[in-house]
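Let us practice reading a record.
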Amino acid sequence: MTSSKVSSKMSSKLKFRHVLAACTMIVASTSSSRAEPRASEPATQADLDRLEQKLEAQQRLLDKLIQLNEQYLRQLVSLAAEATQPSTGDPRPAIAKSVPEGKPADTRPAPSRPRPAARAVGTLVGKVTGGGGEAVVYIEDVTGNARGVATMNQLNKQFSPGVLVVAKGTKIEFPNRDAIFHNVFSVTPDNSFDLGSYRQGSSRSVTTTRPGVITVYCNLHPQMIGYILVTPSTLYVQTAADGSFRLPNVPIGHHRVAVWAPNAKPVTSEIDVTESEPVTVDLALVRGHAGPHTNKDGMPYGSYKE
């Protein structure tokens, strides 16, 4: 509260006390006049003059009382108006934090949370024989979910790329780039789907939820075969043409590493990854050939040539 408001309130209180004092005087004066004994003899001119003087004094006190009362009411109205007027500064109320008496406010910055220690990782290197440059090396016992998008096109009556590697949780788009209809499907256990027939320029998709190999076909063109390897996490790498590979950021510790290639049974090996130096592992695959397959209804393909 400002000093002007405080002084205004004090002045109002003083004026109210004056009003009370005046009322007291009027009451006392009236009481004294009533208490005087009435004379039995007729009033003289002097008595009348004294009575008129008392009446005039009482009238003056009444006038003063009315004037003080009006001033008091004006003061109350003025204070009420000041209380309802918005301030010219920040319209938001200022909120002050209470501080115990005799104890200064703590101005020290809040303690920062310690950052988690960097995860210790190592590197896996080696070579895969029998993979023909299409082998994929991945850590089998480390899991995680990806949220990316990958694409397997339908172009020239083939899947492109023919081999696609994604982490679990990845969404895969299958756009049709050919001027004919395609019907992408898979009968792989736990990863089966059927996207139906759709024309050029259209695209449909699936989201991978389980690790494993998904073999993809077209219900209209038996020569269309694609392979999708869904790894448990993003810890995977495709080998170079000579079969060599390098896989960084592998958590230190004991792990199971796997290698896969189309038409080859996955091969696994136990490894111990350290932070000090890369771990070397050599793996070998035996590849076969894709056998005949049926359409999505389990029936042989017809004579559709388009």
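A brief commentary: Residues 116 and 251 are 15 Å apart (CA to CA).
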